[in-house]
Amino acid sequence: MPFPARELPARRRPVTLGRRMRLSVEMTIHAPASRIWAILAHRFDRIGEWASAIPASRAAAGAVRETGAPVAGRVCETGVRMYSRVEETIIDYDELGRALTYVGRGLPGFIAEARNRVSVVALDHGRSRVTMQASVRPRGLVGRMLAVPLRLQFEREGRRTLADLKHYVENGRPSRRKERRLAGH
């Protein structure tokens, strides 16, 4: 702990928001980068069509397109009682570099900030690498206590989301996991 906080009595130490968790997952998809980018960026609001973690999604009403992105933001129905609706807004967008960053709002109180950077890189004519780099900053004691389970959950969901994307891009339809989830709703 940096000085002077370590010198203060325990009850008077400043409350910190916790350390930022950084997570990164990537996957190779057998498709041109332009096709993947069209789904991730140009149809940003339609993640509910293919991602099993998101039962439904739509464009965020009133979102301002300040970044040049074709879609400024989306509202995701999560199916999770604690945060059933999350709004995600694109804050950085690079069409030529095929990268975008978005932040989430409507998250549980123990998460101070959540952002995700998604990029697509062509490996050759028919293969591309998709990378998701998430950054989550927990808030307060509960956030710090849940940091490890949250990290495991976010890593698992990140891998599942990329697997869902891979299936959707390569097969032209949602994964079985997504279809089962849709049938259950």
Structure description:
The chain has 185 residues and is an alpha+beta fold. The chain has a single domain (16-184), classed as Alpha-D-Glucose-1,6-Bisphosphate, Chain A, domain 4, CATH 3.30.530.20. It contains 4 helices and 7 strands. It has a 7-stranded antiparallel beta sheet with strand order 1-7-6-5-4-3-2. Strand 4 and strand 5 form a beta hairpin. The chain is globular and about 50 Å long. The termini are far apart. 25% of the residues are buried.
Number of separate strands: 7
User: What is the gyration radius calculated from CA atoms?
Assistant: 18 Å
What are the secondary-structure elements, in order, as H or E? EHEEEEEEHHH
Mean pLDDT: 86
List keywords for this structure.
7-stranded antiparallel beta sheet; 185 residues; 7 strands; disordered N terminus; single chain; Alpha-D-Glucose-1,6-Bisphosphate, Chain A, domain 4; alpha+beta
Concise structural overview:
The chain has 185 residues and is an alpha+beta fold. The protein has four helices and seven strands.
